Amino acid sequence: MAVSFSNSSIDNLKNQVNIVDVIGRVVPLKRAGSNYKGVCPFHNEKTPSFIVSEQKQIFTCFGCGATGDVIEFVKRYYNLEFSEAIEKLAAEYGIRMEKHERKDSREIYYRVNKLAANFFYRAFTEKANKGYPYMKRRGISPAILKKFGIGYADEQWDSLYKYLLSQNVDKKIMLELGLISESNGKCYDKFRNRVIFPIINTRGKVIGFGGRAINPDDNPKYLNSPESPVFQKKNNLYGLNISRQSVGKEDYIILVEGYMDVIALYQSGIENIAASLGTALTENQARLITRYTKNVVLSYDADGAGRAAALRGLDILKPQGCKVRVLHVTDGKDPDEYVKKNGKKAFIDLVNKALPYGEYKLENAKSGYDLSKDEDKIDYLKKATMIISSLSPVEQEIYIKHVAKDVHVSESAIKMELFGHSGEKPVENQVRRMEQEPETENTEITSIEKTLLKIMFTDEAYIDKVAEYQQILESPFAKKIYDLLVSQYEKNQRIFQDSIREQLSYNENEQLNDILNEVLLGGNENKVFEDCIRKWKDNELFKKENHLITLLSLADEEDNQERIRELTDKLMEIQIKRKNNSRGL
Ligand SMILES: [Zn+2]
To answer: What is the pLDDT of residue 253?
Structure first.
């Protein structure tokens, strides 16, 4: 039965429960002014920046941004669903909740799967069978076998079928769940002489099974439940029901290919782990992961299929905002074998050495090429620039250097390949780069400055308009040209390019030529002008925002609640301004 609660009883619960009390039981809190303060349980920190407000009944962390009410805290801290968090709080405080029980049409499927899981489990643990010695040979301890609910499907043709009939289960349900198949009016068990891995979702429901053949001649080696009303491979990850707490705590997850990888790593003490159910990672699985962490380490087999799966995984996870790294085990075929042979520490070493997105893609693109041959070099470079162009500006800078070193070509050649013949980043990238490195003092002329110069040379009317935003022109060259333009314009009400050029050195003339040739306005000065201003404003606001965040952390260290509130308000104001600016308001 799926449970939901009435809003009024949720409000009642929140009124009766004190957030300071609930959080204080698991996070040591100290009174700080009108609030309480402690070390954030959701990110690693030494100086406390986690604040609990008794008055507002909320928590907030200035370090990682976690925030919410008491239910949100319980949800996140204990990795529970919303209704589970409410049930936990209600039980602890003896509060009666008004329940709306929705009959979930899937309940019957969960119930039957549970019956089957128990049947397999008993066959594995209560009598002699071929599954138990097999798993023992593979080095899995009884405690871990129990934890994962490992079972055994015997060699009979219909023992599960008969058992489920004895429990009054409708044949139709068994067929839909793929537990049995029917031919010529007779029903057979689908899983026979196999070790059974029940697949359990994060709500603790048995949704399907994986079966490992014991007899080496049996095909396929792994047999999975078919898709059913409760089992969609693309929505679930094996092991996450057990590992999710640890994933939250470690703030990263290791994704492996198989059931045995999950179990072997878990047994070795690496608990933040799950498997993608034999298929390539899907978007839904990626979203499921981001509920617990944004940091993913893909640990697939080193063979061709494993590499292809890793590449697909990267491209699925990156758009979800995940930081992804890839490791391939070097010794032994898969993580299961590796960890058994070399132990936990060695595997963690591999995790620490896992290659980040860009590096992995470049490494992979290189395979098959002989970089001592010019032809191969050129082909690889083309691939490499394509990969680099998909990265963030900071990553681009780094990987351009890597590749240049690797194939012994100049960085500027790669840049030309990337950004066209000038080798300069387009305006947009330039602005993004500045966003990420707001501190760098830029005496070199920026794309925004270049564009504004070009606009003023194209249409004198913009000289007045730029006057309003003079601060944009920071580089010595842009300032010099602007001053010349203004004095000319004031004298003659128009621009004589030649008399400006007379006052420039040979090199400055060349630079001006480059700018005027390079910047294209597409006949739409006004739009380009407005874009420039918007980007510049956003950059300024971004700097202010960063500054405020620094001040906030200072105020926080000093425990100055008043200042924190003041700064938080200002910060929100800036963030709204940035949003409006980006919308052109
Ligand atoms: Zn935090």
So the answer is: 97
